[in-house]
């Protein structure tokens, strides 16, 4: 029965076209709001802060914004497919290219959010200890390395069945091939580790920085409070955007393996697609992380784009931020 619910799931046809048009509207709204916001942030990093000359987190934050912009360019195609009642493009090449871009840039966004929190952890909890990250962040090599390491992780996710929720079918439907099982398992491992491992790291960094603030009785508690505010904001972004889709994927896999009811499988797949749309909201929230990271960036951004909000804001100068009398102070606080 070609028009059955199960056949539509297999063909990546949306069974609830009205809901998928709503998903498409959300993605279009995200693009309209996030694209100019991220473009303005990217402009400041390149032309005002000159991130490649900085010894701060600016290199990481620039790559975070770059990943978001590349992801935003994919969303109109995704929205078009949803409007047409399709979960993915029917063109195999376009489908695989979209999956490659979506998972590469979402992975990069997660990676640079995590690295930013790790760097803040070392600066606050182990301020005097030399570490590899502190050395490498002075040059763009570590950012290039992160992008290169993410490339092989996108290979298993480029298989078109992933987005149509067909991994690990029920025993009655599954193909009895070892290669198929290995590919399905590898694909799911990549999806979950890309979210779960960074989340564990973020929780650890947040707890350690908060404990450091509690034990701090003398010195500059303002910097520590800003560090806590930063890692907390990263945790909020991560928890709001990425954890729900990981939980939705887990539920979907359980239903596909254990429940032999096409209507329930379809509802789980539709819910998962909606949670994936929610994950694209990080393109709107990441610029806020940039403001929490850098007092200088916030001051420049307000004075450049919202001067009526920046009348009493003073932009920190490079000379003052790198003064020998304040060796521990920098523009990222």
UniProtKB/TrEMBL annotation:
Keyword terms of this UniProt record: G-protein coupled receptor, Membrane, Receptor, Transducer, Transmembrane, Transmembrane helix
Major localization class: membrane
Keyword Ligase assigned: no
Domain G-protein coupled receptors family 1 profile: 37-290
Xref: PROSITE patterns: G_PROTEIN_RECEP_F1_1, G_PROTEIN_RECEP_F1_2
Transmembrane segments: 22-47, 59-79, 99-122, 142-159, 189-207, 228-255
Subcellular location: Membrane
Gene3D superfamilies noted in UniProt: Rhodopsin 7-helix transmembrane proteins
Pfam families hit by this protein: 7tm_1 (PF00001)
Entry's family note: Belongs to the G-protein coupled receptor 1 family.
Signal peptide, first to last residue: none
Membrane as UniProt keyword: yes
Full protein name: G-protein coupled receptors family 1 profile domain-containing protein
Bilayer disposition of the protein: Multi-pass membrane protein
InterPro entries: GPCR_Rhodpsn, GPCR_Rhodpsn_7TM, HCARs
Cellular component, GO annotation: membrane
GO molecular-function term, one example from the UniProt record: G protein-coupled receptor activity
Entry superkingdom: Eukaryota
């Amino acid at each position: 029965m070609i028009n059955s619910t199960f056949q539509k799931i297999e063909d990546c046809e949306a069974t609830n076209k009205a809901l998928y048009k709503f998903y498409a509207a959300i993605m279009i709204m995200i693009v309209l709001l996030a694209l100019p916001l991220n473009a303005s942030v990217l402009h400041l990093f390149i032309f005002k802060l000159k991130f490649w000359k900085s010894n701060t987190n600016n290199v990481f934050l620039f790559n975070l914004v770059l990943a978001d912009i590349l992801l935003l360019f994919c969303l109109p195609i995704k929205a078009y497919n949803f409007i047409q009642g399709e979960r993915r493009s029917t063109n195999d090449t376009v489908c695989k290219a979209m999956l490659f871009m979506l998972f590469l840039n979402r992975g990069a966004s997660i990676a640079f959010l995590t690295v930013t929190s790790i760097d803040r952890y070392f600066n606050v909890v182990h301020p005097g200890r030399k570490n590899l990250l502190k050395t490498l962040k002075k040059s763009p090599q570590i950012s290039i390395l992160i992008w290169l390491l993410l490339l092989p992780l996108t290979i298993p996710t480029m298989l078109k069945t992933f987005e149509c929720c067909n991994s690990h079918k029920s025993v009655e439907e599954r193909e009895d091939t070892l290669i198929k099982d290995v590919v399905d398992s590898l694909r799911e491992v990549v999806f979950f580790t890309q979210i779960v491992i960074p989340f564990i790291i973020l929780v650890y960094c947040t707890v350690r920085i908060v404990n450091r603030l509690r034990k701090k009785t003398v010195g500059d508690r303002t910097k520590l409070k800003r560090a806590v505010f930063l890692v907390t904001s990263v945790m909020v972004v991560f928890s709001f955007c990425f954890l729900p889709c990981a939980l939705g994927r887990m539920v979907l896999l359980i239903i596909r393996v254990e429940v032999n009811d096409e209507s329930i499988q379809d509802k789980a797949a539709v819910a998962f697609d909606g949670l994936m749309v929610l994950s694209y909201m990080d393109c709107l929230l990441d610029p806020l992380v940039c403001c929490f990271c850098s007092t200088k960036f916030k001051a420049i951004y307000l004075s450049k784009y919202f001067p009526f909000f920046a009348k009493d804001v003073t932009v920190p100068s490079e000379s003052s931020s790198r003064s020998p009398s304040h060796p521990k102070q920098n523009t990222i606080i």
